[in-house]
UniProtKB/TrEMBL annotation:
It is an enzyme of class 3 (hydrolase). PANTHER family: VACUOLAR SORTING PROTEIN VPS29. Residues 1-152 form the Calcineurin-like phosphoesterase domain. This is Phosphoesterase. Gene3D superfamilies: 3.60.21.10. InterPro entries: Calcineurin-like_PHP_lpxH (IPR024654), Metallo-depent_PP-like (IPR029052), Phosphodiesterase_MJ0936/Vps29 (IPR000979). Pfam families: Metallophos_2. Its EC number is 3.1.4.-. It comes from the Bacteria. The keyword Metal-binding applies. Belongs to the metallophosphoesterase superfamily. YfcE family. It comes from Nocardiopsis coralli. Its cofactor is a divalent metal cation.
């Protein structure tokens, strides 16, 4: 099973649309995980229309329309891997320990908010993933997203850089 993992798309303020490279990944994915800060209902509906399966949450910049449609925390089992998705996890210091305590029943926690790519493990084995942002890199050198292959309870994750349009 192929996953696309994105967050913090901030449409239309930071980008009118997702980069074409990300839409190509949507078309290849069996499921898309979005960790919040859509900022626009059209961002959600256009992804729902194109993704085979969509798992998403609302973020701190998402208004009432998005909060009415999305949960604060989403959970799904994909390819034998138990996922939780949330927008914010708090400060980086102590994140693994804090999240391991908060989400003891999952294998992978996908989060956003910081726009900083993150891939670590807690002492209990919980894997924490933040894909960064494909549209708002903030102080990061590149716009980013992740893909993952999941099968039989195993996960292989790759961080990708959005290539500049040329």
């Amino acid at each position: 099973m192929r996953l696309l993992i994105i967050s913090d798309t901030h449409r239309p303020k930071r980008a009118r649309d997702l980069p074409s490279q990300v839409w190509e990944e949507v078309d290849r994915a069996d499921a898309v995980i979005h960790a919040g800060d859509w900022c626009d209902l059209d961002a959600l509906t256009s992804l729902e229309a194109r993704a085979e399966q969509l798992i998403g949450v609302y973020g701190n910049n998402d208004g009432p329309e998005l909060r009415a449609r999305l949960p604060e925390v989403a959970r799904a089992e994909l390819g034998g891997v138990r996922f939780a998705v949330v927008h914010e996890t708090g400060q980086a210091h102590g994140r693994e320990k804090r999240c391991a305590k908060r989400y003891p029943d999952v294998d992978v926690l996908v989060f956003g908010h910081s726009h900083i790519p993150w891939d670590t493990r807690a002492d209990n084995g919980l894997r924490l993933l933040n894909p960064g942002s494909p549209t708002d890199r903030r102080r990061q050198p590149h716009h980013t997203y992740m893909t993952a292959e999941v099968d039989g309870g195993r996960i292989d994750v790759q961080l990708h850089t959005v290539e500049p349009r040329g």
